[in-house]
Amino acid sequence: MRIDLGEWQVAGNDSPPASGMDRPLAIEARGLVKRFDGFVAVDGVDLSVPEGAIYGILGPNGAGKTTTLRMLLGIIEPDAGLRRILGAERPHDVAHAIGYLPEERGLYPAMKAVEAIAFVGALRGLPLAEGRRRARRLLEEHGLGYAADRQIRQLSKGMAQQVQILGTLVHEPRLVIFDEPFSGLDALNQGKLERMIRALAENGTTVIFSTHVIAHAERLCDEVAIIAGGKVPFAGSVDVARDRIRPQVRLETRAQHGPWRAALPADARHEGAFWSFALPESGAEPLLRALIEGDAGILSLSIERAGLHDAFVAIAGEAAARALEEDKPEEMRR
Amino acid sequence: MNDPIRSGRLSTLAAAFVVARRDFTAILFSRSFFFFLLGPLFPVVIALMAGGVGQHVNDAADHPRLGVAMATADVDAMLAARGALAPRLNDAMPELVVVRRLAPGETIDARVELARGDIAALLTGTPRAPVLTGTPAQIAAWQGPVSLLAAQALGEAPKSYPQVALAGTASSSAGERKGRLLTAQAAQTLLFLLTMLLAGMVLSNLVEEKSNKIIEILAAAIPMDAVFFGKLFAMLGVSFVGIAVWASLGGSLVLAAGSALPALPAPAVGWPLMLLLGVIYFAMAYLLLGSVFLSIGSMASTVREVQTLSMPVTMLQLMNFFLASYAMTQPGSPVEIAAIAIPFSSPFTMLARAAQDPAVLPQIAAIAWQGLCVVIFVRLGARLFRSRVMKSGPTRPARPRKSLLARLKPARA
């Protein structure tokens, strides 16, 4: 007999996941609304991002992620709602403490890499000479020192993207906002970026990023906001999101019939040799006891904690999940 | 990292400076700037060529000739009379061309001869009874001189002419006014040409910015007003460099040409102040037009769209120039006041006024008004940009291309 309690055993039985709510908030948004000529792009979004957290905004394209980020940054003004970024109501007042990587990457093609980084720093109030000094050091640290004096147009797309990420960080911001940072990066550079994000958070920097790739959010984020159709149906820790749906049981038995069948919920599905069902609310122990005492003859049993993808489906709905997977704009708000 | 030097909040002015510094150096050290400097060379060469041809045509038009068709003796008498009078009357005496010496009894159809030759009017008959045929304006202009010629030919002109003593003055009131009007016109035209030549640069600059997709980085870091001001002042700086280069070359040409070039009469405010006002009004005209072009450039995504959208603005600016030119000849009139009040014609009108009116206070007031308008237009442009352009939306590869107007409609976030 093989019984695999998987991740559920580790996270589900211990103390509840650490919540960021006891930390001061880097971003606080209440009821943000943005309309474009009558079309409601963002509809009453609430966000609370604790300082030092890695926070993901998860949703398919067209869900309102970029518009929300742009409102938080002051690029566009909300039609309604309040926002507070690093304690300031006007984002530009704290622009020197924010780093931003937009979804559409952009650099001046004729600029040298070192100048491009220093220029972005200068826009955030970093003296140009200091920006150049830091730019060279950052490029060296990230293995791009040889490209410091090359023009952006001479760099590969991936390298240019890395240069832009370094420009986002050159002024040592307290809050970094990445809009779809992993798009356009190969697997190697995605891994590098993940490590960079973790390192930033370890140094106390708040990192907020939008993505439509659940795996990134699941691996990196302390908390996520699931956004779909301009609304945020869920915002909180990844664990809480996953706990929204009960762990899934997969059971293989020697016996086909017997008293043990009474322990299975009514909606249990029989697929081949396996039974699949959500773990009953009473928990694993009563289930196991009932199966053993009911002579089920357990061949294998696994109890898997729901992944963020399952949570997303449960929270945002099938249509949003499909759009997320297919990287297509969701149609459900029409 | 944790360097001791921290970044600090930038004021709008400081933020604009960061953008202006980048744009200024990027443009100044670009290859295209060299070609930009060469740009005016072509219109200047064409203008000189056109000017030469025009002068030739003008000369011909300014010296119309009077045809004479009389009996041989009468023709000779008229030619001799002109020879006698021309030194005293200079240009007032028409040049005579013998169309035909008529035999006794021969007649001529004046209208046919007029249509055939390159004469402005035809004199027939006899010195005692001359007949002048031509357009009403031309025969009215020549009636007096022809009468004098006929009298001279008949020997009935005064036998002696009293010597007129000449006492020259540097200027007369009417002459001074005319001279200053010429200066005003020259200054206005130069200002307009420079503005139109240079303001277009702003357009292509912002289109390039959008194609680089860097605009969102700018908009996230600093207020859009600062982005617009930075871009405008960078281009103004580039324009001044261009003007300095052209002025140096032009100055060298003037020095080389010496007195061959005509000197413009001194403007009412004097040359030093006139030059200073020229610089200020160029800056104002440039910033005003540039702020409009910048707003257009921010909405357009291709050069073609820029050209389409900027055409009406260029036409309107041409109308403003015509308004200012007309207002120049109507000092103190409601037309001039309107031309001063309309921000886009105000710099041209006021520069022309400086050439004609020494009062400085209205100049200061006009500069303040134009400066205020620049601020308002830039802010409006920045607001328009943020509300209309900074929208995100889903990627739809199969979406058919929409027209510009359609794209100004809402996009899905």
Automatic annotation (TrEMBL), chain A:
A GO MF term: ATP binding
Pfam families, A to Z: ABC_tran (PF00005)
ABC transporter domain sequence ranges: 27-254
SUPFAM superfamilies recorded: P-loop containing nucleoside triphosphate hydrolases
The keyword ATP-binding is assigned to this record: yes
Keywords: ATP-binding, Nucleotide-binding, Transport
Family of the protein in this entry: Belongs to the ABC transporter superfamily.
Protein name from the UniProt record: ATP-binding cassette domain-containing protein
Organism of this sequence: Novosphingobium album (ex Liu et al. 2023)
Organism taxonomic ancestry: Bacteria, Pseudomonadati, Pseudomonadota, Alphaproteobacteria, Sphingomonadales
UniProtKB/TrEMBL annotation, chain B:
Subcellular location: Membrane
Keywords from the named record: Membrane, Transmembrane, Transmembrane helix
Source species, domain of life: Bacteria
InterPro entries hit by this protein: ABC2_TM (IPR013525)
Membrane spanning residue stretches: 32-53, 181-202, 273-297, 360-382
Residue intervals of the ABC-2 type transporter transmembrane domain: 186-377
Membrane topology: Multi-pass membrane protein
The protein's name: ABC transporter permease
